[in-house]
Amino acid sequence: MEINLSETKDIVKKESTKNKIWIGPVLGFNAWNDRINGKYIDPLTELLTNEQTSNSVSLGLALGKQISPKIVLNASVNYYSRKRSSTYEINLPYSTVDEISAGDDFENHFQHSLPTSLGNISTELILARSKNSSVQNNENVSLDLSLDNIMKIISIPLTVQFFVKEAGKGLYFETGIINEFILKNEIADI
Predict the structure, then answer these.
(1) Cα angle vertex 134, ends 109, 97, to 5°?
(2) pLDDT in tens, 16-48
């Protein structure tokens, strides 16, 4: 009797790269370093004493698709807020002639319009002084005024990653665009 054993070969199918899709959460940290370039003129620059943009966290959802062994497309939708605070030091002449009596104190109302990069902010400033105050008519009064610019933004980055070896491993180069939509943009004076 003759037994003939044929060689068995495992057939390995190559995994299709075109069907690899993943989805997941995105958590980011935004550290801002604002620089003004060009010919932007802020009429209050000489009055500006401090300006700071707070760091923020972004949250979102990402989608990725591998389109070849070395190329991956990524898209995400992220939400974040941005707060920029500016402090100005202003000297105003205080008029005792235009004062309004407010009980034990006197008040002086100033209407002013502050130019900002987002437009003018019109507000009413009320200064109060006590009856025992030594402020003279038209004496300059020094004030600290702060403005907060608060923005809420949806960001949609679209990127392409090119991996040197294979997708998901090692060194890669990335390029893309970021689309941002401002949901809220307000300025408040403090």
Answers:
(1) 40
(2) 555 678 899 999 998 887 666 656 555 566 777
> What is the β-pairing status of strands 21-30 and 56-66?
antiparallel
Its pTM stands at 0.63
Q: Give the Cβ contact number of residue 24 at 10 Å.
A: 10
Question: How many whole angstroms from its chain centre is CA 180?
Answer: 10
Q: What is the dihedral of CA 35, 190, 129, 127, to 10 degrees?
A: 80
Which of these, 142, 143, 147, lies nearest to 119 by C-alpha position?
Answer: 147
Question: Which tokens go with 71?
Answer: 């190329």
Give percent above pLDDT 90 in the chain.
29
Q: Tokens 């040197």 map to which residue?
A: 164
Q: Which helix (H) or strand (E) holds 11?
A: none
CB 100 within 8 A of CB 106: yes
**The dihedral formed by the CA atoms of 54, 57, 60 and 64, expressed in degrees to the nearest 10:** 100
Distance from C-alpha of 30 to C-alpha of 10, rounded to nearest angstrom: 50
CA distance 81 to 130: 41
Total residue count of the chain as it appears in this document: 190
The confidence score (pLDDT) of residue 157 equals 93
